[in-house]
Specification:
It is built from 28 helices and no strands. With 629 residues, the chain is an all-alpha fold. The N terminus is likely disordered.
């Protein structure tokens, strides 16, 4: 069997394989083949590595043709011959499956090599990215990628595209081997109390740690850029003369870093500090980085910009298929750093060019949620409406239900309570319709829990706006909220549970029961900490501050309000200004000195959540708000 990918026309190859199949069938009918081992040897000698798809199509054509002959033939002698031919074809098929299994690795490398070498010079990078896509049925593993690099060298001329891709792969894998041994060392440096991509600029966190472990100039400079929270776009713009080998090296390093981190985090399912929320953060962080590189590399050439977009979309497709994909969440605690604060915005433009798929609907759902958290309600509605239409066409009912729920929540923020109630009712009806199976049943029930919460929440807010006084109006709405909480607890859905607690707390605050509200808001804050949702954490703290104020507990009002204000500002949510306004009024009532004393009393609690830098930033936020009044 030849190890080189054939460079001839696929039509000629198909004809050759049809002839091979016909020869084996004819030889079998003549009694010259007496065992399946002989059939296997003929396949082994006749099929060239990297051309399995062509052979499989030829075999399928012959199998269908002979099966049709058996089904339609009337002459008994011809039926008998066709039946023997069919039996021979099925033997070939079984041995072909054996060949595939035993030659899977070699075949994968040869097919990848064939796709890259046969592509036009300008598209070889795109071909390389396609053949290394982790979403392929049989993605290349590390040893196969090493073998691909060696095989590319055999075809490469000095400094050609193939030579540079091969060199980039080799250097990238060499760097990854060093990084892999110290992949998580940054978590244990300087007694870090939390996990994630944040840290003191230039001193701590993964980027600074990894910068010390790579030897090449480009990845080293790139990691330092991220460690210092500098612009990824500007970094790429300054490298307009980047070589293909340097680009491939960086791509290999970043892809294996991302996959290595996700693999480790996925193993921590029962660790509330890690587990799925850090896997989610990793997917988002690296997708955004590639989107920013795509923007920055436009000066270096379209192949580099398009290549970065390709990798970003591959990451998002992988992410969208994970069971923990956050249909009802989006801003996560470890997704931090000022350069990435509004990072989900960077995913908007590349997604616009992608056809409507189930994965696109789910990513648009995430964008819609993030835009609501940022206070961009019109953009949020736009994203959720797009996602709703795509999910409906793709038959992704859990995603369809999720977007109806998100639209309901966004309409509440716009004080459009009629539409909010309408969309939550539609979500509730759809979630209770039969027609889903498997994992989708639980996802539909999660949608039901969210719909109950959103319906109750919308009705409470509408009643407040209409100044309804009748207790039964609120009783019905709160009953929906309590049903949603019970269902989310039964399902064990942390994200939905956090939303339920938060909504109940706000509802009880609206109807003038701050003591009951505090219980739910505190539970909501703790649950949002577990899920990693920074927006819900900040929102619960903001409402807790108001609830404590109503109970004349000024000390806790200051503590929760300042902490909530900081968290909301960190994700660029415009709601930080609302709580800043409330705190400014409170500070005016009790005096600046007393306010500072009360804040100081809770310093240790605040440090445990946001660290000393966060604590020191709180007075600056209040000063900034006052300066812009």
């Amino acid at each position: 069997m030849s190890d080189s990918p054939p460079l001839g026309d696929s039509t000629d190859l198909s004809a050759r394989y049809l002839a091979l199949i016909d020869e084996i069938v004819a030889t079998t009918l003549k009694g010259k083949i007496s065992s399946v081992e002989q059939v296997y040897q003929l396949l082994l000698n006749g099929i060239t590595n990297g051309t399995g798809e062509v052979f499989e199509l030829a075999l399928s054509d012959r199998l269908n043709a002979i099966q049709e002959q058996v089904d339609s033939e009337k002459d008994e002698l011809k039926i008998a011959k066709a039946t023997r031919s069919l039996r021979a074809i099925k033997t070939i098929h079984s041995q072909w499956q054996r060949w595939q299994e035993q030659n899977k690795a070699t075949e994968a490398i040869a097919m990848a090599l064939r796709e890259i070498t046969l592509d036009a010079a300008g598209d070889r990078l795109a071909a390389f990215i396609r053949v290394t896509d982790p979403n392929l049925k049989h993605p290349l593993n590390l040893s196969q990628l090493q073998q691909l690099a060696k095989s590319l060298q055999q075809f490469a001329q000095a400094n050609s595209d193939l030579h540079q891709i091969s060199t980039g792969i080799t250097r990238g894998l060499s760097a990854w081997q060093r990084l892999q041994e110290n992949l998580l060392s940054w978590m244990y440096e300087q007694n870090r109390g939390s996990l994630g991509f944040g840290g003191v600029p230039g001193e701590s966190g993964p980027w600074a740690s990894w910068a010390k472990l790579v030897n090449s100039e480009l990845p080293q400079a790139f990691f330092r850029t991220l460690a210092m929270e500098q612009s990824v776009i500007e970094f790429a713009q300054q490298r307009s003369s980047i070589t293909l080998s340097d680009w491939v090296e960086l791509a290999v390093i970043l892809q294996y870093l991302q996959r290595g981190l996700v693999h480790w985090f996925d193993q921590q399912a029962y660790n509330v500090q890690a587990g799925p929320k850090l896997s989610i953060s990793t997917f988002l962080t690296f997708a955004v980085i590639w989107s920013q590189l795509a923007s920055g590399f436009r000066n270096a050439g379209v192949i580099y910009s398009n290549g970065a977009s390709q990798i970003m979309l591959q990451i998002l497709r992988t992410f969208a298929q994970r069971p923990y994909f956050p249909l009802y969440g989006g801003i996560f605690a470890s997704f931090s750093g000022s350069s990435l604060r509004n990072a989900l915005d960077y995913l908007d433009e590349p997604l616009a060019s992608v056809e409507g798929t189930q994965e696109k609907a789910r990513i648009l759902t995430l964008l819609g949620y993030s835009q609501r958290a940022l206070g961009q309600y019109h953009r949020s509605v736009k994203f959720h409406q797009q996602a709703l239409a795509i999910a409906r066409n793709a038959g992704d009912r859990p995603c369809e239900i999720a977007n109806l729920n998100h639209l309901s929540r966004t309409y509440v923020q716009q004080q459009n309570y009629t539409e909010a109630i309408n969309h939550s009712q539609r979500a509730l009806m759809l979630s209770r319709q039969p027609g889903v199976s498997g994992a989708s049943v639980e996802q539909a029930r999660t949608g039901e829990a969210n719909a109950l919460v959103n319906l109750g929440y919308s009705e409470v807010m509408q009643a407040q706006k209409l100044e309804e006084r009748a207790p039964e109006t609120y009783e019905t709405a709160i009953n929906y909220l309590e049903q949603g909480l019970k269902l989310s607890e039964k399902l064990g859905d942390i994200q939905s549970k956090a939303l339920c607690f938060s909504s109940l707390g706000i509802a009880y605050l609206v109807i003038g029961q701050p003591q009951t509200a505090i219980k739910y808001l505190e539970d909501g804050f703790k649950t949002a900490q577990v899920s990693g949702d920074l927006y819900l954490q900040g929102r619960n703290l903001a409402y807790l501050s108001e609830a404590y104020y109503h109970l004349q507990n000024t000390e806790k009002s200051v503590y929760t309000g300042c902490l909530g204000m900081y968290l909301l500002e960190q994700i660029s949510s415009l709601e930080w200004r609302q709580i800043a306004g409330f705190l400014t009024i409170l500070q005016g009532q009790i005096g600046a000195e007393t306010f500072q004393i009360l804040l100081q009393q809770h310093r240790s609690k605040i440090l445990a959540v946001i660290g000393v830098d966060g604590y020191d930033h709180i007075p600056h936020l209040l000063a900034e708000y006052k300066g812009n009044m």
